[in-house]
Each structure stands twice: as structure tokens, then as C-alpha cells.
């Protein structure tokens, strides 16, 4: 079963935003091993954020590949990591989502390992 990952990017009025969002889109595509599912980008300029949502049939595997790629290319992703919130749709839609990344390091993140059977 496919799940959706939502990358919410804050501060999109920044002069670097479009370039960094393009980097994210290209990176997501490169890390998706099977055919990329639906991807949508929704800009909310009034509230200064955008959502990049992608569909994945194996979100645990995808997230592992993607986070390794981000770690290997940390400098290129610094701007995004300081502005993103990443959530994974849960078994019951968005009611039980997992928080995978947050720009605030004090925020407690969820672990995919805890839900491994559900997302394998």
C-alpha cells in the first residue's frame, strides 16, 4: 500500500527558496527506485510555506535512501533542513502520521522502526 510523505518547507519568500525546492524535487526523484508516484507542490505564499507531497510504495526504504543521500550532501541540504518538517502518512491516513524530520532539533521525532511492519 502506498503512503504519502509531506515535506513542508518554511520561509519560501527567501531568495534561495525556488533553487532549494528544485534541489529537493530532483533529489526525491533520484532516490525513488521504482516509478515515482504522484508528486504535488503546493505554495502558500501568504503563509510563507510550501508542501511537497510524494507517494511511495516503500516509504521506509525510500526514507532510508533519502536520508543517507541528504547526509552525503549535507552542505547542499542545510538550507532545507533548517526549514522543513517531514511527515509520513500513517495507517489511518493523517490521523496517525509519523514526524520524520523537523527544523527544530528540540522536537522529538518518530521512528519508522516502531512501525516497520506497517510500512515495509
What does this entry look like structurally?
It is a single chain. This protein has 120 residues and is an alpha+beta fold. Helix content is 34%, strand content 32%. The protein is built from four helices and five strands, in the order E-H-E-E-H-H-E-E-H. It has a five-stranded antiparallel β-sheet with strand order 2-3-1-4-5, covered by helices on one side. Helix 1 crosses helix 3 (74-81). The model is unreliable at 116-120 (pLDDT under 50).
Short description:
With 120 residues, the chain is of the alpha+beta class.
Helices and strands in order:
Elements: E1 3-10, H1 17-31, E2 39-44, E3 49-56, H2 59-72, H3 74-81, E4 84-90, E5 93-102, H4 116-119
Antiparallel strand pairs: 1-3, 1-4, 2-3, 4-5
Helix pairs in contact: 1-3
Helical residues, percent: 25-40%
Low-confidence stretches: 116-120
Note the gap between the termini. Answer: 9 Å
User: How many strands appear in the DSSP assignment?
Assistant: 5
Strand order of the largest sheet: 2-3-1-4-5
Shape: globular
Based on CA atoms alone, the radius of gyration comes out at: 14 Å
> Describe the biggest sheet?
5 strands, antiparallel
The secondary-structure element order is: EHEEHHEEH
Q: How large is the count of helical segments?
A: 4
Q: Which strand-content bin applies to the residues?
A: 25-35%
Defining key terms:
about 120 residues, alpha+beta, disordered C terminus
Amino acid at each position: 500500500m502506498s503512503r504519502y510523505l509531506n515535506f513542508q518547507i518554511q520561509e519560501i519568500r527567501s531568495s534561495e527558496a525556488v533553487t532549494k525546492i528544485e534541489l529537493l524535487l530532483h533529489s526525491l526523484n533520484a532516490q525513488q527506485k521504482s516509478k515515482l508516484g504522484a508528486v504535488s507542490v503546493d505554495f502558500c505564499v501568504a503563509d510563507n510555506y510550501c508542501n511537497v507531497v510524494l507517494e511511495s510504495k516503500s516509504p521506509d526504504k525510500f526514507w532510508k535512501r533519502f536520508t543517507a543521500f541528504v547526509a552525503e550532501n549535507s552542505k547542499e541540504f542545510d538550507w532545507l533542513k533548517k526549514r522543513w518538517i517531514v511527515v509520513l502518512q500513517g495507517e489511518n491516513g493523517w490521523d496517525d502520521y509519523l514526524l520524520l524530520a523537523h527544523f527544530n532539533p528540540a522536537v522529538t521525532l518518530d521512528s519508522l522502526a516502531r512501525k516497520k511492519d506497517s510500512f515495509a
